[in-house]
Design goal:
The chain is mainly α. The chain is built from three helices and no strands.
């Protein structure tokens, strides 16, 4: 379900496409016909109004995206140290044991 702002944005985009299509159909020669220039001007104004609505919506959405990016990235960076697996006592004991064996092997290998 779309919010009212989302519905307004979709309607503005649809209107923008419609008005641009209308402008594409207008010929320069027709501008000399009485009332045609006024129609052109009204269509152009409606297209720009729709464009401004779209730009505002995109700017707002971009700001929301940047905030969510910052919010999640910040939380992730803060929690990253907690996600590292702490070494268990068994791991520490095995590492110590392996180091001890390596030292003894080096002693036997020395002339």
């Amino acid at each position: 379900m779309m919010s009212p702002a989302e519905e307004e944005t979709v309607a503005a985009l649809t209107l923008l496409f419609t008005k641009v299509a209308e402008l594409e159909q207008m010929s320069i020669r027709e501008m000399l016909t009485p009332g045609r220039y006024d129609q052109y001007k009204a269509t152009l104004d409606e297209a720009y109004d729709a464009l401004v609505t779209m730009e505002d919506a995109l700017n707002s959405l971009g700001t929301k995206l940047e905030y969510q990016h910052w919010r999640i990235s910040s939380a992730f960076e803060e929690l990253k140290p907690l996600s590292m697996q702490p070494r268990s006592l068994v791991d520490i004991a095995l590492d110590t044991f392996e180091q001890d064996i390596q030292r003894k092997e080096r002693k036997f290998q020395q002339p």
